[in-house]
Amino acid sequence: MPNKNTPNGFYMFMLEEQKKIKAQTKRAPSMHEMPAICKDTWRSLSAAEKAHYDGLAKQEKSRQRGGSEKDKYRKDNLRQIIAYRRDPVVEKEKRRRHETETMMKSWMDSDLLDIVFRVIDFQVMYDERRENHHLPLELGMVAFTLRGGIHKFFHTFINPGDVPQGNRHLAFKHSENTHQIPVDFEQGDKNYKGIWESITNFIGENDSDSDDIPPLFCLSDHTEIVESCLDFLHAMSGVDEPFFLHKIYCMEDLVASLMMKSGKTERRPVNSQIHDALRQNIWDYTSSIRCSYHEETDCSYCSLSIVRRYCFAAFDLLSGVLDFSLTKNHMPEQTQPLFTVHPPEAFGRAFNRGNQRRDFDRPRMREDSHSPPAFRTPEPLQQQQQQQHQPAQRSSFTAMPPPRARAPPPIGRFEIRLSDDESSEDDDDDDDDVLHTTEVKSTSDQYHLKELRKPKAPSMLQAASAGGDNVRPGLANLGRGMFLNMRAQAPSAASVAPPPGFSRMPIMPTATQGPPAQSFGRGATVAQMSSVVGRGRGRGRGLPPQI
Amino acid sequence: MPTSPQFLQIANLLFKRVQGALKMKLIRDHYFNMGLSVQVKQHRLEVVPGFTTSIAKYEGGNLLGVDIIHKILRMDTVLDSLYNLYNSMNSSDVSAFHNQAIKNFVGNIVMTRFNNKTYRVDDIDWDARPTDTFVRKGENITYADYYKQHWNVTINDMDQPLLLTKPTDKDVRRGDKENLYLVPELCTITGLSEQARSDFNVMRDLAVHTRIGPDKRVATLEKFLNQINKDQEAQKVLRPWQMSIASNAARIPARQFPAEKLLMRDKQNQRVIEISYNIKEADWSRNMRNVHLLNPVHMQNWMIVFPGRAQANAAELSECLSRVGPGMGMNIGRPTVVELPNDRNDTYLQAIRHNLSEKVQMVVAVVLNNKKDRYDAIKKNCCIDNPVPSQVVMTKTLSKKQGLMSVATKIAIQMNCKMGGETWGSTIPMSNFMVVGMDSYHDSSNKNQSVGALVASLNKECTRYFSKTEYHPSKDDLMRNLTVLFSGALRKYHDVNGSLPQKIFIYRDGVGDGQLPVVYHSEMDQIRQACRDSAGDAYKPQIAFIVVKKRINTRLFSQEGNQIINPQPGTVVDDFVTKSEWYDFFIVSQSVRQGTVTPTSFNVIFDETGLHPDHVQRLTYKMTHLYFNWQKSDDAGCKSVFSAALKYVKIIEQDPPQRSEPSTSSAGQKRIAKMFNVSDAQILLDNIPTDYSTCTDEEPDSDPDDPDFTPDPLPSLANVDRLSLAAAAVDEGASSNEEERRIRPDVTHQWRKRPLDKQEREFSKHVSIVCMKNCHLGPV
After folding, report:
1. Is B698 a member of any domain?
2. Where is there biased composition of kind Acidic residues (chain B) (predicted)?
């Protein structure tokens, strides 16, 4: 039964009328008489006027219940205080709008193409709704400008300690489904202080003069994970500076804002559109952008590769809008595809047996088997690079019966063919033909042959090895020196046997490590640099030293 | 006869008590007969039989539905397994043992024998012992003492670690927030390990016990009912309520559809002919040896990608394909042969990308194992980045020499579909209709998102389809963005046929009984909205909405003499075991060699097509024949439609995970569509001179998204007439023509199922069916 005493709009109206009548006639009609007096006027009121009285009634109701003071303690059926209830979707939306505004404001007086943006991603132990914390296992960060592309990056595995009791199953399942990082990963770094300093260095490097902490970007569905992981690292690092990395922005907003800023799009693109575009999977298994562990396990859930993929996709989206050209820092390094195309005649007995009747007009695959570019192509590489790769491919498959190694251009950039390629068009089984192409043509090829004679030399080693700079001067742009600074500590921590009792301590003693990260300035000598590379984390890959 | 819901509720409760009185044990929701458990000693497994029961009101009265289920337990306790593992490790490295043990046991479901409860092992606490104490009712008590006092179980090994289980969501809501510790000695693992599941011997030995033939199943169930009627304890439960249970399964009438005719093409004169098959097998792979596919697509330019190790397999596949192809009318040319040095994902992708050209019709990838991420990577690449039809084949499938030709045949049929060909058509004497299949899929890795898929037939033979997917948040089965999908289907139908369908049959999978009204209201509204959006208010198609359920407990048996066998495919039951307030029926559409066949339930929740129920059933049965991966009738009507939809959904789903605005995906749609058997990739038929060519010779790709697309002139009426004439000509004999005549729009549909008239009785043979759903239950 509804409570008859609760006021409604009409009741409030009657009260008001009653007062008016009393003021005029000095005699107030009783409440029983009032409906008859007021009903016609009430009916003639507009909806807005009625709403006014409904509002009054609502206030009155609230007053009867005990006022706003008491409302603070009213709970819903889940025993949550109603006044504190927040719609997370609305909250997040609000926050994103605010962040976008501040971000756009901060760009006011600078060239969009030269602003440094930093993207971050964590792989976590498990992602469970019921656990409101996240334990980081892997960290990947890159910094880029639109003009220069990605110029530095940071990657490390983190050992967050033991799995919280009871969550082992979650951890196993999450690892199996996504990042494949085992629960007790030996590459995991426990030097939280070092990691924290690396992160702060990475962020503070360019804008050291300003106090403003630059934002970190990640995808909108990862903000919670990133915040939680940074919190964890900060707490574990034991540094006494306050936690300041609270600017975790959504990368979708960044891309959308940049598009808007260009003035070429009138309507702000929908967030989910950009989200989809950023998460495209064309580079999922591209070898050259992953860390060595995930390269080995052939897994696409690698933080380093994820952040790079976001950046590549963003470059791809924005280059047309903001008019900057894509260099090799904007796209993954092209690895030579490792396949051999056999002539179909040598394949399957049926063809040899003949069945001439079905000799269809098979298209010549040479000419027309090149796919249209799947994405915007960077500027063509030099011929030199093409030649570098060529022997690698040939020599790895000499064991195959008709090793007709073919290097068709994946996209427009490999337009240059080896001279003998055309001539060998028709004689398929000519093995000499192949040998010709392996002949050494330049010093860099010699270098490559040397490389390839090493047992199982992965192509990615080329860049990381000591002579890398001599061979490919172009790679100097990658800002590897910067990266080396970052890594100065961590590899040494991994390679040096931990002192007794080490594993218990959350913070590494610094005695056995290299100098702290800051002391490795930009002017580090080549010797220093190569020694660090030699220790095996060239471009984030834990390769064993080869020299 | 009492029919109130409360009565049924009480009857169900009583029946549970009866099972309890028969000394059966409750595990989760079902009662199991521990005394009858069979031990498979060589694999250390135990199979416990049990029953799933439910009492509900049907047209035949209050009926008890019973079926046999099995639970598989390991004979060893977890402690035994731990010791075995430790002894087999032959190294004294404790941490290695710990890791291995965690790998083996964490995540398993264990059952504690003393109370038959199941838990998931979340962790192993190596430091805990049964001698540890916990607080119970304010007192400290050791686990060993607790089990002794409370359950009268003695724990022998005091030096074992404890298993840890976290409370479920339900427990937390109830207030149990603490982790539970279990003693390994008292726990047995339930279910099979992955290893055992892939072991052929284990599965074969288990199948002896779990896969029961129809005769034995009926015998066991009748024995169970007899036991209830005789057992004193059970009667003590039932008698005070004056209830009894019939001891025999019910005999109910059913009808048998004749074998369907399938449209294929004659080898010599390339005319469309009909083939039939043996109704008992519902398998026409033999019958189609001497005919061509309905519309084969020649595969002249294709690519085969394989790792070096699989070279022999790939060569054989290529050879077999080229041999089986011509027999079906498919010319399969020489492939571009791409050999890979390893089987890494990137190697596959690069090889495919680099060798792909506009002309490549098909990419065949031979893979060494069924790694999910590689399959996903290949499919994502071939569906989204570089749209091309693709076929992934495992080397395992190709390893058996003798079966290779039939494997190649199936692969060739599948590829024909993917390239836009048609394998076989069905003879549906009706035109201007569209059959739509809808289903949704939840990915376990992406908890807060589901995918919905829709496929819609575009031609009369139901061989070509339109398809589109959508994403909806949350876990429920309701499709939220159906309007977009449905208008797309209507538009495509119009593009192809020049008119909109008059009748639309919607087959919807994945809806529980409780959700029917919700699904009806939300989805029918969206469908009507789509009709209004695409053709205005004047367009009011006649819509039938049919809910399909494949996982049901109802079992049907056929009795021939004294023998009880599986009913033949084509058996329809629409009486007695159906609900009186529903328009539902069961169809047995498949034939099984082993075990008992499961019928499929169809429930027409809305129908304004005016079709006679019999014709709806017949149409449904026809649709079961159109699953092109299988030359047999499939287990669910329109499964063709679902499986095709879902297969791609699964792949594409992970890719753009939050496509909440499907309108953005027109390009994606085109890609997806290109992937589908049929739909947008149309077929060129100009070189086949038949009367059937009129229905298919459109532009090769009449996609409206295509910039070069110019709309076809509407097909002239003459064409349409020729079409129906062709169909009529193909229908041989009087019966089919009669059928054609009888499907008239003016036949008003009755919601109540009415008895069949004489004509209809002739049309379908009556068979007697035993249904286990049917034990009378009522007051004595």
Report:
1. no
2. 696-709
B contacts of A298 (beta carbons < 8 Å): 344-346, 373
Q: Using the beta-carbon criterion (under 8 Å), do A358 and B106 form an inter-chain contact?
A: no
Domain span holding position B532: 427-554+577-683+738-755
Number of domains in chain B: 3
Measured distance between the N- and C-terminal CA atoms of chain A, rounded to whole angstroms: 88
Look-up of token digits 């055992």 = B196
Summarize pLDDT for B288-338 with one digit per residue, the tens: 778 888 888 888 899 999 998 888 889 989 989 988 888 888 889 889 999
Is the Cβ pair A169, B319 closer than 8 Å?
A: no
Evaluate if residue B119 carries a pLDDT over 80. yes
pTM: 0.69
Examine the domain organization and report whether B454 and B527 are in the same domain.
yes
Q: Is residue B524 part of a domain?
A: yes
Decide if pLDDT at A421 tops 50: no
The three-class DSSP label of residue A512 is coil
> Number of CB pairs < 8 Å for A and B?
195
Q: Of B196, B229, B262, which marks where a domain is finished?
A: B196
CB B202, CB B45: distance < 8 Å: yes
**CB within 8 Å: B322 and A275:** no
In this structure, what DSSP letter does residue A73 have?
A: T
Amino acid at A535: R
Same domain, B508 and B581: yes
Query: Which residues are CB-neighbours of A532 under 8 A, at least 6 positions away?
Result: A484, A487, A488, A491
- Number of CB atoms found within 10 A of residue B652's CB: 23
A67 pLDDT band, cuts 50/70/90, is low
> Is B591 in the same domain as B672?
yes
pLDDT in tens, A9-35: 898 898 888 888 888 888 888 888 888
Which of B164, B345, B351 lies nearest to residue A166, judging by beta carbons? B164
Q: How many Cα atoms sit within 13 Å of B150 on the Cβ side? A: 10
**A372 with B360: Cβ contact below 8 A:** no
